[in-house]
Write a structure and sequence with these properties.
The complex is a heterodimer of chains A (297) and B (371). Chain A has 297 residues and is α/β, with parallel strands linked by helices. Helix content of chain A is 51%, strand content 7%. Chain A has 15 helices and five strands. Chain A has a five-stranded parallel beta sheet with strand order 2-3-1-4-5, sandwiched between helices. The longest helix of chain A is centred in the middle third of the chain and has 18 residues. The model of chain A has no long low-confidence stretch (mean pLDDT 93). Chain B has a domain of 91 residues. Helix content of chain B is 4%, strand content 45%. Chain B has three helices and 30 strands. Chain B has a four-stranded antiparallel beta sheet with strand order 2-30-29-28, with no helix packed on it. A four-stranded antiparallel beta sheet of chain B has the order 3-4-5-6, with no helix packed on it. Chain B is globular, with a radius of gyration of 20 Å. The relative contact order of chain B is 0.13. About 2% of the residues of chain B have low confidence. Classes of the chains: A alpha/beta (297), B mainly beta (371). Chains A and B meet through α9, β5, α11 and α15 of A and loops of B.
Chain lengths: 297, 371
């Protein structure tokens, strides 16, 4: 079986669309956010999410429903939840192996931001899949921070937290996460982790996607590239049933079809002005230096 | 100061030991059959120029007051238009700015460019180009700039003995305000190569033919698609119609250490990654042809380069506690590690490489070897 591809980035870094694009390649299978590497077993992951008051693992619910029953309805998601409860002892690797078995000889594409939420989660991914492909996905710290802030404000709980404790540190989220990913890349053999600037990929998809195919050693013919330009064709690129409505970025689910003319005009912001979410502060020298490592100004 | 790591068991060394002096060898030059060796003793804050004859005899050249306390950056033998005979021009990097000395064959040395001539720039790199001496200016170590030349400029003279002969040869930073210096220079036949350092967007490589009618042409930018991680070039080595480039980057905790790469610019303008980080690029996916990751799979700080007629050499250079590796290649793509046989039991932390008289000369700390 092929090794999976893990897309690594902090949330709000275009990972939903990029994962769905790559996942539409005929030799790949794009997954919603499984978020199972946050714990040693599926049961612990279920408990961790349940304890936070959220509906646990909607991405995994949708995946199991789709692969076991060929459709995502409230009924098949309930069956998927039952399967998850029955397999609480499974390790994340065993869950992935099960999915791989159902998908067959295709590269699983996984992009959960939870994989990089803490170092031990990322370590768990690498220990489970020491030979996987890793793609570090970049988005400018300003636009990522703004997108993160917007998402937080749309969530009632986060609005409350924001009122009580002020804004999250969107800058540190970008910097700390990418330092962690970068450090992993240095520990891996050359070529096992690659890096791509999300803005470039979306602006010029036809130019950059064949390079990703070359790296993954999969077809890069016109038919394969065309399939990758249609992330909306994924069974996970629509809202799920009420008991698993998302499992990936909700904005992407509302509008998964790419407008390439608009994307071609997408501008990359600058690091020079104060941070939008903290106008009294500029980006730190550390963030600016790391951003310069990746080609951002 | 570079330390040498000694193993308890003796192992024969393939390279010839030409000499060893207290301190660090900072520059080498040929002077007829002799070599001139510049040694910087950081503890004593003193530079020495030693003339080393082919039979091994040594003679120390007397440096003028002021020059002896500055490390030598580069040396080149040329005959300026007002020189009666070729002289050795010695470029020093003092806290108060750069100095250029002229040393004749009798050993007499004089400062021909320095603060008393109104020159208060630092000097970052130097090379001989088409009968001229070219210097890259930068801020002086002491922070002073001025003296009529902006930092990150190239100044050139065909008569270095005359302070008024120096002329600017490019706009500061080649017209890019983010270029904070010129980190490397190299000449190949009549062509001059220059690398600007740019911590925001990565190095740029520029060239100019002689005569300079066509002006400067940019051949590479954005650190060859590695951006700020290839902020500068530390070495430019022409070899067999191509150009070998060693990159560099300074990074401080908590940002990741960035090890250097080795690139090749072909005659047709395309570049190849020889040693370094695989990546997507405007030129397609780049995979290191030598199958080594950054720093030859090490966390070294710098890669030194030299090319003799038939071979290329590269050495990994570390700070305190590292162990340099020395590699040899005949095509730039297949590299053989030869450090164990060359260094024997005395593996240095870093090594500077010089191709002189068709032989590789290795300066490791105060030790000078020839292969």
């Amino acid at each position: 079986m092929p090794q999976p591809l893990f897309i690594l980035c902090p949330g709000r870094s275009f990972s939903s669309v990029v994962s769905a694009m790559i996942g539409q390649h005929p030799q790949c299978y794009g997954l919603p956010e499984l978020s199972i590497f946050v714990a040693d077993t599926l049961g612990e992951a279920l408990d961790a999410y349940s304890a936070s008051g959220r509906r646990a693992l909607p991405g995994l619910r949708r995946t199991i429903a789709e692969l076991h029953h060929g459709t995502q309805t409230e009924e098949t998601v309930d069956l998927a939840v039952a399967w998850m409860e029955a397999n609480r002892r499974m390790t994340p690797r065993q869950v992935m192996d099960h999915i791989q078995e159902l998908v067959g000889d295709r590269i699983l594409v996984e992009k959960s931001p939870a994989n990089v939420i803490q170092a031990h989660c990322l370590n768990r991914v690498v220990e489970a899949y020491p030979s996987a492909h890793f793609l570090q996905l970049l988005r400018h710290p300003r636009s990522r921070g703004l997108s993160h802030q917007k998402a937080m404000r749309q969530q009632a709980l986060m609005r409350l937290k924001s009122m009580l404790g002020g804004e999250l540190d969107y800058e540190a989220k970008w910097t700390d996460t990418h330092v962690m990913i970068h450090d992993l890349g240095r520990q891996l053999p050359p070529g096992q982790m690659m890096r791509i600037i999300g803005e470039d990929l979306l602006r010029e998809s036809r130019f950059w996607l064949p390079q990703i195919c070359e790296w993954l050693d999969i077809r890069d013919d016109a038919e394969a590239i065309e399939a990758m330009l249609h992330p909306e064709d994924s069974p996970y690129s629509v809202p799920g049933p009420a008991n698993a409505p998302h499992g990936t970025n909700s904005g992407f689910l509302e509008n998964p079809t790419l407008d390439f003319d608009r994307l071609a005009r997408m501008e990359t912001p600058t690091l020079d002005a104060p941070m939008d979410w903290a106008p009294e502060r500029a980006f730190s020298p550390q963030t600016r230096r790391l951003a310069a490592f990746y080609g951002y100004r | 100061m570079t330390q040498v790591h000694r193993k308890p068991a003796a192992r024969p060394r393939a390279a010839a030991m030409l000499g060893i002096w207290p301190g660090r060898i900072t520059a080498l030059a040929e002077a007829g059959d002799a070599l001139v060796v510049a040694v910087w003793d950081a503890a004593a804050r003193r530079s020495r120029l030693i003339r080393l004859e082919a039979d091994g005899a040594e003679a120390e050249l007397t440096l003028p007051a002021g020059a002896a306390t500055a490390p030598v950056l580069a040396m080149a033998r040329m005959q300026g238009t007002s020189d009666a005979a070729p002289r050795l021009y010695v470029v020093c990097s003092a806290d108060s700015g750069g100095l250029v000395l002229a040393v004749d064959d009798t050993g007499a040395a004089e400062v021909v460019l320095g603060p008393r001539h109104g020159f208060r720039c630092g000097i970052g790199a130097a090379c001989l180009w088409a009968g001229r001496l070219a210097l890259a200016t930068g801020p002086a170590a002491g922070g002073m700039i001025g003296g009529g030349f902006a930092p990150a400029s190239l100044i050139v003279s065909d008569d270095p003995a005359r302070p008024d002969s120096w002329q600017p040869f490019c706009e500061p930073g080649l017209g890019d305000a983010d270029n904070d210096g010129i980190s490397a220079l190299a000449a190949e036949d009549d062509r001059l190569w220059l690398a600007t350092s740019n911590p925001l967007r990565g190095f740029q490589l520029w060239t100019m033919a002689n005569p300079a009618a066509e002006g400067w042409e940019q051949r590479l930018d954005e650190g060859a698609a590695r951006y700020g991680m290839n902020a500068r070039l530390t070495a430019i080595q022409p070899w067999n119609g191509a150009l070998l480039l060693a990159t560099g980057c300074e990074s401080e905790d908590p940002l990741p250490h960035v090890a250097p790469e080795l690139l090749r610019l072909d005659g047709d303008g395309d570049w190849d990654l020889l040693v370094g980080e695989p990546r997507f690029s405007r030129q397609g996916m780049q995979v290191p042809a030598a199958l080594f990751g950054p720093g030859f799979d090490s966390d070294c700080d710098r890669i030194a380069l030299a090319g003799t007629g038939d071979a290329l050499f590269a050495a990994t250079c570390f700070g305190a506690g590292g162990r340099s590796s020395l590699y040899r290649s005949t095509d730039g793509e297949t590299w053989e590690e030869i450090g164990a046989t060359v260094f024997g039991d005395d593996v240095p932390e870093s090594a500077d490489l010089h191709a002189l008289g068709g032989r590789l000369h290795i300066a490791a700390g105060g030790m000078l070897l020839a292969l």
